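Write out structure tokens for carnitine O-palmitoyltransferase.
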Amino acid sequence: MAEAHQAVAFQFTVTPEGIDLQLSHQALTEIYLSGVRSWKKRIIRLKNSVVTGVYPASPSSWLFVVIAILATMYTRSDPSMGLIAKIQEHLPVSKSMSTQCQVVVSAVLFSTMLWLLLIFTMRLCLKQLLSYHRWMFEQHGKMSNTTKVWVALVRIFSGRKPLLYSYQGSLPNLPVPAVKDTVKRYLESVRPLMDDDKYELMTKLATEFESSLGKRLQWYLKLKALWASNYVSDWWEEYVYLRGRSPIMVNSNYYGMDLYVTPTPIQAARAGNSIHAFFLHRRKLNKEEIKPWLLRSAVPCCSYQFERMFDTCRIPGAQTDSVQHWQDSDYIAIYHRGRYFRLRVYQAGRLLSPREIEYQIQRILDDPSPPSAGEAKLGALTAGDRIPWAKARQTYFSSGINKRSLDCIERAAFFVTLDDEEQGILGDDPQASLDRYAKSLLHGKCYDRWFDKSFSVVYYKNGKNGINAEHSWADAPVLAHLWEYTLATDCFQLGYNAEGHCKGDVDASLPKPQKLNWEIPPECEEQITQSLAVAQTLADDVDFHVLSFQDFGKGRIKRCRVSPDALIQTALQLAYYRNRKTFCLTYEASMTRLFREGRTETVRSCTNESCAFVRALEGGEAAEVCRRLFRSASEKHQQLYRMAMTGAGIDRHLFCLYVVSKYLGVESPFLKEVLAEPWRLSTSQTPVQQAELFDIVNHPEYISCGGGFGPVADDGYGVSYYILGENMINFHISCKHSCPDTDAHKFGAEIRKALHDLIQMLSPSPREATFTAQSRPEAKKDL
């Protein structure tokens, strides 16, 4: 209990002689330094709020405008055309001021109003400029004169040295597409997946919807778009994520892997460096020093998802969950061998050094204390169904010591698991060990992660690490930005000494990490057991395979003058067709962060063009015919991707129309059919956003293995791919053992073969005339 006593600033004892008051100098110093740190953060936030609020101008430009107006008046000119005199007449304290002072005050007030008007005009102009998206549809490397002028204007109106959130007020709102256009695009997307009778029925339902109910729903949706910053994002977060009552483990959460290399085999040292790096990133985030993400170095993307990265937790509810965000926590919550600990990472107002964090982590690893009754598998509540967890939280964790301990976990900066297993590329079968590594990050033991936290970091016994993230608060590219920074800072900036420990010295007077206490009744333990059973069944059903494809990468694909993403998506269509002898509705995630509070849109990458190409290739058509059809499929895919990014997608619009219909209490057979269609192939690419942090050419081992997610449909596949440098593509493939038609390893083999077949078809080769004759028997043999 030493740390508890150190936290008390004063103690007193009542004696016959009076009250004996004892002040703790150390505790008072801690309180003072903590207050200083808190006020520094408030000042920084206030400063950033002012800088962001006046962007694209700067606070110093106000002084320039004031001096310019006063200088003009000194020349006996009136730039205000009489407004300064009007202001002077209505000054409330005019009688107590000299005439000259009144003139100066009036001029300053006019200058301020003029400055604010200029800011508003510049922001409005920038917002209109950012609504232009024709540049995205132009051929790569060939920019029109209109786009060149547009880029120059964007850079002029964008100001200098923007902060992370500087562009937020200038981003355009997501436009609401016309119902007619969305329905047309939808019918085109499902044509290759339906027979004539089914398609005719769907066309009839769509026509009826477009001409009647669709107009009414669209009116309400446009009304919301006028009022809200984004007509999709709040409903998407609530109805897709927070209202889901099934487990979020596997079904919603996703993961990211470590580097190929392990910089140190010491678990505590790896944790020390990377935890320190996480807090360095949070410091940059609080100061808004992270650069806004710019497309083509000019077009800004929305940054609002960064706001809830740290100090955030999903809170279970009976009908819907909520996402709670707190101010900066000065500690993290840690799980190790069934015990929960609270580790403060700030001491005397400063961030602990990596070596000091390592020292504290090692204390936890060496702590022999046993877990309390029911504590060891408490985390299973966050892995099971949401309603039992919500009821248990209300019944057993709403007061007393359990509430204090739960608050400590939920309000922590993030969650850490010190795993007692070894993971990574191990032993004689590196492929199988990589698959086990992925499954461990996705669900672990189902009770040793806190799946509700915005993200949980896992440190394994052999120095490997990884991250598991809750999905409702942000999408994968936002977390990937944090993960890239942490991995790079860990290895290239902080580093380790010759023994593998963190660099620096240790303050031996640091208080020990605080073990959390619990009083869990038998009824709660029973619920923990039930939740664990549900989670374990779900985890055991997941079939996972990580395909590290190193035969070629985006370098060779680009030499064929093909979009790498388009080729990969076509390869997935070819692999699925060979695997299942049919096509399926395919989901590819695209971002809509060109708009304020934008998140994602769906690219339906199974198209008429891609299906025609696959049929031609499998039917033995000539190589030239296949190449032509492939180019058509590739161009169609890029067109759909660009339309999704620019607000002309299909699925988010139909989803919001469906939500409006539910609010109005009306049924739409068309929308009901659309929302019931299963995504049997769900795909996503996570791009490398900070390539400058890594020297991939000279140190190719210092790159992440990527990340993945669980299958969306019970009879389908989840595929996450990560394009690494010029010569590697990693695929994270998931499905379910319970489905006899899916197999992650077989599908991975089909993807590998499809990639080879496509690159061989596209590459000039003297054997191209015999290509199709050779490839067809191989495909049948593999199947």
